[in-house]
Amino acid sequence: MADPILTLSGVKTNIAQYHILQGVDLDVPRGQVTMLLGRNGVGKTTTLRSVIGLWRAHEGTILFDGEDITRRPTPAIARMGIGFVPEDMGIFSDLTVEENMTLAAVSGPVDSARLDWLFSVFPPLKTFWKGYAGTLSGGQKQMLCIARAMIEERKLYLIDEPTKGLAPAIISTMARALRELKAQGASILLVEQNFAVARALGDGAAVMDDGRIIWAGAMRELATDKDLQERLMGLSLEAS
Known about the structure:
Blueprint: E1 4-15, E2 18-29, E3 33-37, H1 44-52, E4 59-64, E5 67-68, H2 74-79, E6 82-85, H3 97-104, H4 112-121, H5 123-127, H6 138-150, E7 156-160, H7 168-183, E8 187-191, H8 195-201, E9 204-209, E10 212-218, H9 219-224, H10 226-233
Parallel strand pairs: 3-8, 3-9, 6-7, 7-8
Antiparallel strand pairs: 1-2, 1-4, 4-5, 9-10
């Protein structure tokens, strides 16, 4: 396996009285796309939010690029080079697209070449650059959410269900953008329910159930083994 950029060892996270993560062990190889799969409610989002520090792991260790980030605050983790795309988008509706993007550039002024690339993969952002983010369509808001994480080159991207609820044309745009990000050598941990997207983008896969990783391996192995899919998740990827 490639050198892991992210390693979770025995990570347990509680939310109020609920024990969500029950001891997650996960390696995310450097320069690859790792799909985090599983049924709803098994802990995928909690895993991402524990890595970025929004929800604090109370047990276990999270190593990023060789450094222990388990107890670090979210802003410090982000400045180390992790971009996060939350499921709920979290855009600032009363700010313009430009202002949303500017705030996301934590290292300084927005790089013009990087911005031009983002405009090429998400053309509506250029069209509505001076418009308020709250006036965008659902698909355009998702583009903005992903573009904010990509405005600077990050070492690792945590992306939570980027195609959820989107029309097929918008899903194609999202997949193309993520494919280009992957081609740049990015390391990505991606939660995705659209298995066609998972098959197309994933190098590796990890399947969660009941707050634990129950299987990890090559995405192509999971994508071509219907028996394995049904045993792990109770469904067939070919039907998705």
